[in-house]
Model the fold of this input.
Amino acid sequence: MRILFLAAALALLALVLVYVYRMASGPTVFDRLLGVNGFGTKTCVVLLLTGAVFDRVDMFVDIALGYALLSFIGSLAAARYFERTGEHR
Done:
């Protein structure tokens, strides 16, 4: 089972590269924000899989929840800032 979790984590890390590309070359600010949101989501899932591999899911759930909250609040703050300033590119 541990090998399955490691394989899933490696596959998700490979998918994170797609979001890094989206963050780097998104044509608009909102595309970059979507890349950041996807990156945060995949990172939370990888954290949970890491907890399953090390048999410490309880600790990694707390870390993943904290990271998800920070990612969500940061995305909301950035979206609100760009909405108020009118910067779209």
